[in-house]
Design a protein that fits this description.
single chain; 346 residues; 60s Ribosomal Protein L30, Chain: A; 2 domains; binds adenosine-5'-diphosphate; binds cytidine-5'-diphosphate; Chorismate_mutase_AroH; isomerase; ATP-binding; coiled coil; Cytidylate kinase
């Protein structure tokens, strides 16, 4: 069971205004959490003492929420609290954990949760920085750095495709069979945890954070990610994470598909030679020697697959800022992203 919170303010104490705003709030909660009506067990509403013209629950019934239990209460009155406000707590039969709940605060009620709200453009959505780009451009390094400086979580979506690839390699699932991959994803128990040491990736109870970094897993991640059924499920999981908390998220389709309303979108790139050289150094540091020309070939092959796939190919979103990091070190790129963010938030 999870409990999703929401609140909205009303301009006048009239039946019409109360029902209209409650309906807007419930619709947004349903949409942002991809809720089916049958999943909702009950909703508790409160209204501040200045709202007396109608019960908010009436709006829920008219939205077709006929089977769940509804109650309306008066909100406890606290001096100088936000007036004309309707609050809701939606109880949902889901095993996804409380962190997956996307809470919704609209109109003046956004002031109640400044940690979730993020300026006019976001309209109650949490802060989101989307970083896309080709393999080895420095997305994870930069996303991690930016998240640390902002004190928010970093979500590495590539790690989710890598975890699925690892699971399928171990289970002998055909990497070309989209349907089988989607089924395997349902059974895989892929889950992300965000702690003080960053993101950790699990297959059920098994921590695979380090194992998924293998080169063969990375190459197979790009193969499993071609399939639309797989992508659809992954995107849903990613949107849930970003729905309820501020994030820096990196991947291939974050600005174009996962977070189309992100506060800031960056398309980070570098030449294929520079990217291969970075991988080369990274591998050398781990005691693995690989020929540079083969790494360039592999990276270009991965770019081709990511950019030419039919579903959600890698491309720069129209409103993304292009950052070429071929001649910048990682710290310089982090600074650029932070100053771009300051500009969009100003
Ligand atoms: N701007 C940069 N300059 C030099 N090296 C970088 C830069 N950004 C990242 N790196 C290094 O390049 C390698 C690949 O970076 P990574 O963040 O894993 O890329 P991506 O997530 O885009 O695949 C890492 O070894 C990282 O330390
Ligand atoms: N949002 C995402 C993230 C990764 N991916 C795929 O997953 C693969 C591994 O992602 P990654 O970000 O870990 O890859 P690297 O760039 O770190 O090598 C990529 O090559 C993409 O094909 C994707 O399709 N969409």
């Amino acid at each position: 069971m999870i409990a999703i919170r929401g609140a909205i303010t009303v301009d006048a104490n009239t039946r019409e205004a109360i029902l209209q705003e409650t309906e807007a709030l419930l619709k947004e909660i349903l949409e942002r959490n991809s809720l089916e009506r049958e999943e909702i067990v009950g909703i508790n509403f409160t209204a501040t003492r200045d709202l007396t013209a109608a019960y908010p629950a009436v709006a829920a019934r008219s939205l077709g929420l006929v089977d769940c239990s509804l109650m309306c209460f008066q909100e406890m009155h606290v001096e100088n609290s936000l007036p004309m406000c309707i609050r809701a707590m939606v109880l949902v039969e889901r095993q996804t954990g409380q962190k997956s709940a996307a809470h919704v605060y609209m109109k003046e009620a956004r002031r109640l949760r400044p940690d979730l709200a993020s300026g006019e453009a976001g309209a109650g959505r949490p802060l989101a920085v989307a970083i896309d780009g080709p393999a080895g451009a420095g997305k994870s390094t930069v996303a991690k750095g930016v998240a640390k400086r902002l004190g928010i979580i970093y979500v590495d979506t590539g790690a989710m495709y890598r975890a699925l690839a690892l699971h399928c390699m171990e289970q002998g699932v055909d990497l070309e069979d989209g349907e089988a991959l989607a089924k395997a994803l349902d059974r895989s128990g892929i889950r992300l945890e965000h702690g003080s040491d960053g993101q950790r990736v699990f297959l059920g109870e098994r921590d695979v954070t380090e194992e998924i970094r293998r080169e063969d897993v990375g190459n197979n991640a790009s193969r499993v990610s071609v399939h639309p059924d797989v992508r659809e499920k992954m995107v849903e999981m990613q949107q849930r994470i970003a729905g309820s908390q501020a994030v820096v998220m990196d991947g291939r389709d974050i600005g174009t598909h996962v977070l189309p309303d992100a506060t800031l979108k960056v398309y980070l790139t570098a030449s294929s030679l520079v990217r291969a050289q970075r991988r080369h150094l990274e591998l050398q540091a781990k005691g693995m020697e690989r020929r540079l020309d083969l790494l360039v070939e592999e990276i270009e092959e991965r770019d081709r697959r990511d950019m030419e796939r039919e579903h959600a190919p890698l491309r720069q979103a129209e409103d993304a800022v292009l950052l070429d990091a071929s001649d910048l070190d990682a710290e310089q790129v982090v600074e650029r992203v932070l100053s771009l963010l300051e500009r969009v938030e100003a």
